[in-house]
């Protein structure tokens, strides 16, 4: 059969390989591709890069089909894809550099991640950067001993189950003058104990914070400090985290196929931390900011004069409108609300890796893309 297959057959292939899913229809046709490039939501048969991809790789391998599915945009009983801009070419699975996120659906340790995770706190007040008490209960602070016996919180992380904290690898590389000693969970305002919220009709206080010693640090073996490649790590704590209190709950991770192939679209993502603010000082209160995803091409161009190299294993955000990752936010989460076990939950898709010295000053913040490391995370979990 000739390589240039007919448009009717192309459309049939697209229908087969891009089955309909239920998702929220974006307000505009603009979207973000799985590699964080820019695109437009259009019917698949009108997307020339998709047509070219099928013609170039027919017959399609299973990996090729997964690539097509990952470009699905929003569907209402039709085949709609995030069609890349002309300068972006849909990758071929025949290229070893175009690695797809691992499928961990049947991983031997999948049961070590809780199914009850990422709760969405209903009292959230929008329009402010201040997080509400209990709003992000998976947040963890990493405590370091400094040269003169003082201690300081220098990085953050997230609770992923009763024994493990997910963070950045560079937060685990210490020195004689900077030793990681413990983690704190259940914190909201560092300067107050207990943390309380007061409302006209109600007031309540959180349980005491949990300061827990560290049993093991596990930086990714492929971490490169110069380029920030594979900037992901795990901490196993010395005793079980109490996740039954409202102030400490695990975050969800992208374990299923739908979560793995989720398209960011034009939805802002959420980053949280106690990082340095516009005042030049670290915040004592947990802060949040809603930031847009920046395309891989734009992000790579921003850092082209630096040793850092941006790849599809990273997510870039903000940097344009002045709000994003700041020092001391390292290791913290980039999250998105999405369906998890048929409930809307917060999913951690990124780990704060690096950004400009002054946050939000024209350079995007760069996050390790969690979906590409789910097999590594699960491989390193123990009961």
Automatic annotation (TrEMBL):
Statement: the UniProt record of this protein carries the keyword Hydrolase: yes
Superkingdom of origin: Eukaryota
One Gene Ontology molecular-function label: serine-type endopeptidase activity
Biological processes annotated in GO: proteolysis
EC number: 3.4.21.-
UniProtKB keywords: Disulfide bond, Glycoprotein, Hydrolase, Protease, Secreted, Serine protease, Signal
Ranges where the Clip domain occurs: 30-83
PROSITE patterns linked to this entry: CLIP (PS51888), TRYPSIN_DOM (PS50240), TRYPSIN_HIS (PS00134)
EC primary class: hydrolase
A single GO cellular-component term on record: extracellular region
Family indicated by similarity: Belongs to the peptidase S1 family. CLIP subfamily.
Domain topic, free-text comment: The clip domain consists of 35-55 residues which are 'knitted' together usually by 3 conserved disulfide bonds forming a clip-like compact structure.
Annotated protein name in UniProt: CLIP domain-containing serine protease
Native source organism of the sequence: Ignelater luminosus (Cucubano)
């Amino acid at each position: 059969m000739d390589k240039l297959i007919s448009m009717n057959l192309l459309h049939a292939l697209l229908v087969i390989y891009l089955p309909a899913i239920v998702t929220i229809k974006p307000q505009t046709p603009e979207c973000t591709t799985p590699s964080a490039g820019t695109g437009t939501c259009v019917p698949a048969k009108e997307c020339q890069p998709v047509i070219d991809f099928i013609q170039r790789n027919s017959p399609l391998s299973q990996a090729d089909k997964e690539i097509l599915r990952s470009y699905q945009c929003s569907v209402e009983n039709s085949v709609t894809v995030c069609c890349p801009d002309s300068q972006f070419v849909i990758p071929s699975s025949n290229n070893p550099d175009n690695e797809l996120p691992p499928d961990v659906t049947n991983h031997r340790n999948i049961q070590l991640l809780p199914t009850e995770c990422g709760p969405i706190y209903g009292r959230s007040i929008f329009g402010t950067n201040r997080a509400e008490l209990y709003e992000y209960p998976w947040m963890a602070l990493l405590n370091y001993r400094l040269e003169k016996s003082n201690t300081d919180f220098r990085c953050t992380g997230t609770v992923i189950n009763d024994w493990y904290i997910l963070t950045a690898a560079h937060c685990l590389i210490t020195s004689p003058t900077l030793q990681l000693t413990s983690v704190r969970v259940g914190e909201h305002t560092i300067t107050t104990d207990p943390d309380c919220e007061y409302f006209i009709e109600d007031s309540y206080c959180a349980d005491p914070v949990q300061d827990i010693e560290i049993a093991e640090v596990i930086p990714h073996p492929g971490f490169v400090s110069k380029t920030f490649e594979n900037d992901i790590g795990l901490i196993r704590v010395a005793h079980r985290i109490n996740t039954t209190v409202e102030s400490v709950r695990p975050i969800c991770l992208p374990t299923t196929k739908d979560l793995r192939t989720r398209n960011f679209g034009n939805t802002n993502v959420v980053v949280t931390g106690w990082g340095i603010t516009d005042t030049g000082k670290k915040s004592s209160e947990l802060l949040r900011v809603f930031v847009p995803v920046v395309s891989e091409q734009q992000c790579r161009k921003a850092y082209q004069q630096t040793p850092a190299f941006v790849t599809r294993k990273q997510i870039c955000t903000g940097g344009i409108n002045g709000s994003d990752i700041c020092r001391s936010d390292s290791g913290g989460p980039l999250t998105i609300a999405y369906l998890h076990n048929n409930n809307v939950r917060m999913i951690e898709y990124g780990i704060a890796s690096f950004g400009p010295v002054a946050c939000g000053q024209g350079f995007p913040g760069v996050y390790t893309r969690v979906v590409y490391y789910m097999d590594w995370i699960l491989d390193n979990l123990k009961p």
